[in-house]
Amino acid sequence: MAQLVKVEPGSAWLYTNAAGGPIIEGRLDETCREFDLPGSYHVFALPIPRRRTSATAVAAGDRHVRLDFTALPECPPEDLEATDGVQANAKALLDRVKSVWARLRDVEAALAIPGEIWRRLTELWLSDEANNNPEMDIIVQHARDLIPTLDLLDRAPRRILRRTLRMVPLSRVQEMDRKAMTWLIRQPGETFAERGGDRQRIQAVAREENFNTLENRVLLSYARIAHQVAREYRDRHKGAAASARLRRVRRFGLRCGTLDTDLRARGVSHAGADVTPNFVLQNNANYRKVWLAWHQLLNRRRVLDELWRWQARSWEEFCALTVVVALQALPDTRLIAVSPIIYRDEQRQGCWIDHCNPLAVFFMPDLNVTVEISYRMGTGDTLARFGAPIWLRAGRIDSTGFLSRWAIWPIWHAVGGLEPGEADELAALVPLGRGQPVRGAISIRPTPAGGNAMQDCQDCAACFTIGASGTALRDGILQLGRFLREHILMDAG
Question: How deeply is 406 buried, as exposed, middle or buried, from its count of CB atoms within 10 A (0-12, 13-18, 19+)?
Fold first, then answer.
């Protein structure tokens, strides 16, 4: 019988030397190989299920376990109105997923001038404007571009005339078909008036307007999901009520809600996400805009589902960027080398960025120190045992000694906050890498509701919390930067 393992509300990894890696619920491609260890062992990251489950089957070689994920919240709908603590925690976690995604999208915006990426990213993350203005989102683009289109389609949605048989007053009969003529012949009387009876009506062809076309069903489906996304965006950024961007999204959400009501009053129903576009959706300029916008929102939902499953890896990538930004933000820092960075069109198991190592190299003139940041680099046996995805290497340019290293672990947690005694545990690991030499260790956790925090131990270990937006992001970056300068760069070499 498979052993039952309860997964705590933090990152989950599987350590195995099984050929091909672990199999989750019969599928081989459900894990991500993080790093290799001596002896053909590998560490695999496990995805977080969208729904709570107490019996996820995992097989690795001849070992079988069942994972209990009930300690983790399940992915809530975006328009959830939390009514208890469990729902509130799930909603807060989804908001963090979206904020991390927004920070990673900032990289795409900063890549407009590749050589200025870290300076631009630092401005985006630390400026007052960035903290007071909600992040860019697909719904913001729709609010800017689509209101005239929605106004036009609401005033005059496309309709078709359907031919139906109805009882029509004699004075209004315009067309009769075979069925109507057959009906008329069977009625008693010699003339039309006699066969019309007391009410003077006969069966005839009537043309009726029908708005329930595929293109209008797509329009209704878009209005419904856009209204939900706009409301969620507004609720998530209540603190930026003065933002023009937020006001625009609020107006757009109300407009979509009105369009939804109007179309339903005309008898339009919803379209399924798998519908095939007809001629109008492909060739009418206005309906084609709606079709493309609808699929952008559907794709956004799919991306969010995947980012929920791989939010621990997204947190790692975000923390790697945060370390570089923390160094870039230090006074008199000079960026002397930067990795080419590619922003992927599609996320890959929570990650968006391709790069080379080192990610960036900085020079501190007043300290005469260089520092480089590497992210998911290949390491030897000693460093591999640490399992750290981020490494700092620093040293004085006038010294012939070995460059010192610091290991950095981004540690995802559903709630966030520091763990008591964690800095002492990290300090105990440092002597294991003296041969490299490993000088210290850092962990970075998400900021809880209470704000940023830090703990350190013996000047060789520290634990930080950092937020993914607002003042929690700025304060966390500045706090991390101060520690890097005082404890790593000033002691380098």
Answer: buried
CB contact set of 70 (below 8 Å; sequence gap of 6+)? 6, 52, 53, 54
> Would you say 204 and 176 are in contact if contact means Cβ atoms under 8 Å apart?
yes
**Amino acid letter, residue 417:** G
Label residue 9 exposed, middle or buried (CB < 10 Å: 0-12, 13-18, 19+). Answer: middle
Joined together, the tokens standing for residue 273 give: 């996400």
Alpha-carbon distance 6 to 52, whole Å?
A: 12
Find, among 48, 39, 41, the residue nearest to 15 by Cα: 41
What's at 491, amino acid-wise?
A: D
Judge contact between 150 and 260, C-beta under 8 A. no
Radius of gyration for the chain, computed over Cα atoms and rounded to the nearest angstrom: 31
Nearest to 292 by CA among 283, 305, 433: 283
And the tokens for 208?
Answer: 């009726």
The CA distance from 238 to 263, in Å, is 30
**Amino acid code (one letter) for 361:** V
Tokens coding 490: 């000033």
C-alpha 315: how far from chain center: 11
DSSP annotation string for 106-125: HHHHHTTSGGGHHHHHHHHH
| pLDDT for position 367 | 84
Instruction: Supply the pTM of this predicted model.
Output: 0.83
Q: How far apart are CA 446 and CA 452, in angstroms?
A: 9
Query: Structure tokens of 398?
Result: 């006038």
Distance of CA 335 to the CA centre of its chain: 30
Mean pLDDT by 10 residues, the chain (493 residues): 76 80 77 78 84 79 81 80 80 88 89 85 79 74 90 86 71 73 76 72 72 89 92 78 82 92 89 88 91 92 89 93 94 88 88 90 88 86 82 82 86 87 87 84 85 70 88 90 82 59
Distance CA 179, CA 1 (A): 71
Residue 59 neighbours by CB under 8 Å, 6+ apart: 22, 23
Q: Which residues of 215-235 are buried (b: 16+ CB within 10 A; e: fewer)?
A: bbbbbbbbbbbbbbbbbbbbe
Query: Which DSSP state fits 484?
Result: I
* Torsion angle defined by CA atoms of residues 70, 75, 81 and 86, in that order, rounded to the nearest 10 degrees: 20
**What spatial distance separates the first Cα and last Cα of the chain, rounded to whole Å?**
54
Q: Are the C-beta atoms of 121 and 106 separated by less than 8 Å?
A: yes
Question: At residue 410, what is the residue type?
Answer: P
Whether 323 and 476 have beta carbons less than 8 Å apart is answered as: no
- Cα 354–445–98 angle (5° rounding)? 60
